[in-house]
Amino acid sequence: MKLVGPYAVVGSNERILIFGVPFPMRTLTFILLFVAAGSVAQPGMPRFTFTLATHAAPLRPFTQEHRVEHHYQELLPYVGVHRSYAGPAVIVPLKGGSLFTDPKAPWLVYAPVEGEHVESYLLVIAVSDTMRIDLPEHMEPLRERAYERWDRDTPEVVRFRKGHYALEELLKEPRCTKAANQLALRLIAAEKAAYAKQLKEQEAYYRAQPPPVPPRTTEPPHTPTQEEIESEIAQRPGMIEVNVDSVVDGNVWVRISGRVMLNGSCASGMPLYGVELRTDTSWVERIPFELIQMDCGMPWADWTDHPVMIPLAWWVRANSREGQGELVPGNYRLVFMGANMERMPTQPFRID
User: Fold this and answer.
1) What percent of the chain has pLDDT over 70?
2) Cβ–Cβ < 8 Å for 329, 305
3) CA-to-CA dists, residue 242 to 118, 302, 344, angstroms
4) What is d(CA 35, CA 37) in angstroms, rounded to the nearest whole number?
5) In the 8-state DSSP scheme, what is residue 152?
6) What is the pLDDT of residue 43?
């Protein structure tokens, strides 16, 4: 047995001690799966953001007319020894957003483009003065630094002055660290105040509501007729359009607009669809359209030019008899259904 912190690592036929409590190996497997699921459910780290302040003390919002640009080269993957290479130089103008809703606190927040970059730096251009800030290759320490202040985005404070600087050097200044912590405390206080105000308004709203009207008589619930059901379905919004973007290796990319019926999965991202194959005379169902939904997710979704990837080759294999699941060459089309139960096919596409 090997002790690692509060844990004891043992062989497969032994029992394990966790904080002094023995557990069989099967129980340990369940515990590890539970811990892993909890870890995935944690919120993500806040982004690195920054705000500009005056150079002179005390630090105040930098209100001089200026613009901020993010210059970088993105690391692009490829098959080779280094597995990536630097892409072309990119210049992205950054638009500052107000940190507080109070117009008397004109702090502007900027968020650099996230990703794997090289030669990444910021240019702050104020009339004839330019400040260059070199960003580190790895941004994780900056996000961890922001997380120490709050679990939401809180900006670092950078004093504007002409010259060329490394970001790590600027953030080491005690005045900037203190100012960033103070801004974070103001954001937290504003969030708490807004939440308390919301609760107070809701309480006042519900107190002002008249008491509920007592039930007059107990009547059986109305059972809608078939005509009423069909009328309600017909009044629902339907699909507007569906277009095929591309077909690659048996996968079909489509864009959907309108209210489309989903398969009801927990992710609520896959529409119901059927597959039709063109014969010499007409379209025939290659895979029948089954109006069956799971009860885990949403029954439909309102999309506007929403991209969806349909794994056509896999779907045909999974829904065909043994030996009949090959996607034979020919002209195909997909058929989707709107919330009003009206079907809409895509334009034909070729599978070779």
Assistant:
1) 87
2) no
3) 40, 13, 8
4) 5
5) S
6) 58
For residue range 124-175, list pLDDT tens digits in order.
999 999 999 999 999 999 999 999 999 999 999 999 999 999 999 999 999 9
Structure confidence at residue 317 (pLDDT): 86
Q: Which of 308, 313, 317 is nearest to 336 (CA)?
A: 308
Structure tokens at 122: 């910021």
CB 51, CB 99: distance < 8 Å? yes
Average pLDDT over residues 98-104: 80
**pLDDT at 85 (0 to 100):** 87
Q: Which residues pair with 252 in a beta bridge?
A: 247, 310
Q: Where do we find the tokens 């961890």?
A: 144
Q: Residue 217: its pLDDT value, please?
A: 77
Q: Is the pLDDT of residue 11 over 70?
A: no
SS3 string of 95-110?
CCEECCCCCCCCCEEE
> Can you point out the beta strands (E) in 222-299?
239-248, 251-261, 273-278, 283-287
SS3 172: coil
Only one residue has tokens 């702090």, namely: 107
Question: What whole-number distance in Å separates Cα of residue 180 and Cα of residue 154?
Answer: 8
Helix (H, G, I), strand (E, B) or coil at 27: helix
pLDDT digits (tens, 9 = 90+) for 289-318: 888 888 888 999 999 999 999 999 888 888
Structure tokens at 352: 């070779």
Contacts of 147 (CB under 8 A, 6+ apart): 45, 46
Look at residues 32, 36, 25 and name the one whose alpha carbon lies nearest to residue 17. Answer: 25
Per-domain residue ranges for the chain? 2-35, 50-186, 236-351
Please tell me the number of Cα atoms within 13 Å of 43 on its side-chain side. 9
Predicted local confidence at residue 22, as pLDDT: 53
Of the options 2.60.40, 1.10.287, 1.10.357, 2.160.20, the CATH number for the domain spanning 236-351: 2.60.40
Give the position of tokens 């999974």. 318
Radius of gyration of the CA atoms of the chain, in A: 30
pTM recorded for the entire structure:
0.48
